[in-house]
Structures are given as structure tokens and as C-alpha cells.
Design a protein that fits this description.
Order of helices and strands: HHHHHHHHHHHHHHHH
Helix content: over 70%
Largest sheet: none
Number of domains: 2
Number of strands: 0
Distance between the termini: 93 Å
Number of helices: 16
Strand content: under 5%
Shape: elongated
Amino acid sequence: MAESITSYIEDLFKYINGYEKDYASFEAEAFFQTYNGIGAVFQALREQRDEAVEVDRVFLEKIKQGPLNSSDLRQLTIQIIISFFESVADTDGKSDQAYLYCREFRTVKRDATYFETFLMPLLTREGSLNNNFKLNNFFMKEIGRFIRKFSSGFNTEVNFEEFKGMPLHQKLLILHMRRAEHGEDLVNDRDSLEAHMRGIGVFDKLRQESPLADSYLREWGYLVEESFWDRFRQSLSVFFAKMRGLFSNFSYVRLALSQRYSAYLFYGLAIAIFLFLSIFIPLKWNSYTGKKLAEFEARVQKVESRR
């Protein structure tokens, strides 16, 4: 197994190097498969200590070949995958040298806190990962998976005021974690925080904070996407509702029409409706008579053909 996983690790760093040298040729899907292939054997390495030590040695060798912060992809990949490796595979402290090396570069030593306070802001920084949303979403899920599995102090039960006061990276992480905990259909639960915030337009404002926020909110279905005709019908519905309320009280109507602006609006609307009907009714009548004439001619031709 060690030889096979070593090959995968070498491929992983080739993808990172390729990303840094020529992003246009970077293959995201192949990178995902390689990363996941490495992570898939961590559990088995808990029982195979000699192989775990060898994998740790290879990790450390590859990590030391370049600056840890030479790119956002390198930093995110190494810090996340090596934290998973140490947390899952290292049971006796003999296969944690690569992890300890990476940990020395952290301003915060606790893994989950470091992920929240450093890696998430890195992920949501403008231009991060060359604006590759698939890469961004992949690492968001990995950060969330690590926190859910190895941190008991992360609280997803926040109220509206607490959410409003959070920075962008924390808002996105909270929303992601709540989806992972309560289900992807959470926004359709009328009692949920997400349903409330969508109803009062919080997500419409959040999307304006960055293109990345807009991409995540679209991905999660948290934005209410309406067509022009939907908005037009809604506007008409609101308008006629107001008009019904206006004309329900004659005294109020008379008072309103005594005001210059209201009078102009009312008579302008009346004239517009009259003009619309003066055009619409003749058009519909011509269409109706044309249809009847066509039916009559068809019957005449049918009768003549029988003679």
C-alpha cells in the first residue's frame, strides 16, 4: 500500500506545481480524484504503522520542496490533508512529523480554529484559487468535514443578529455547516433561519458582497430567481390590490382626487386604460371576424367540392 499511496502523493504535488506554473493546463477533476484517493487510505494506515511512518516521511519530503505559502492551492491542500492524516492515521505519535512541520507555520495551533480563522478567509479572499468555484467548493466541503469530525466547539445554532455581525467567510461557513447538519433542503423549512433570511432579502444583500457569495447562494438555491413576467405579474397584483383598497371607500377616493398628484395619477390611468381598450377591442374584434370569415369560406369550399 505504501508504494501505491506514495505514487498518489507524488501526483498530488505534480498537480500543485502545474497549477502554480501554468494554471490554464490545471486539471481540477484529476486533482480531486488524486486527493480523495490519498485520503481514502488514512483509516487503513491506523493499523499499518510502518506504512504510516513511510507515508509521513514522503509527505514531509514533498512539503519541504517548496514554500508552503507559494500559492493558495498549495497552502490549502497541504494544511488540510496533513491535518486529516495526523487526526485519522497517527495513533502513536510516530507518523506526525509532516504535520508538526506544517503546524509551525500556523499563527493558531488548534486545527479547527486555524481552519476557521485563517483558511476560510484565504478561501474567500478576492481572486482566491483563480476564481475557480469548483476548487473553492471542494475545499469548503473539506474544511467543513474536518470541523464536523474533529471539533466539538463549533456552534451552528446562531440567530439573525449574530449572523449579521459575522464576516463573509464565517457567514458562508455557517451556512455550509448548517446545510451539512440539517439537510440541503433547509431553506424550504419555513421555521429555519435560512427561510427567514431569504424572505426578508438578506441573501440578496449578501450576494452583493462578493461574486463568490453570489456563486454559493446560487449553488445552494438560496436566491429567489424571478423572470421579468413574474415580477410584472407581481407588480400588477400589488397595484390592483392597492386600487381595490383605494376605491373601497368613496369618501377617501374623493379626498384623494382633490390632491393634484393623486388626481393626475387617476386621470392618467383612466386615459391609459381607455386608449388601451380603444386599440385592444378593435384588434380582438377584427381577429374574431377574420376567424369567422375563414370558417365561412372553408364551409363554402367544402359544399362546392361536393357538387
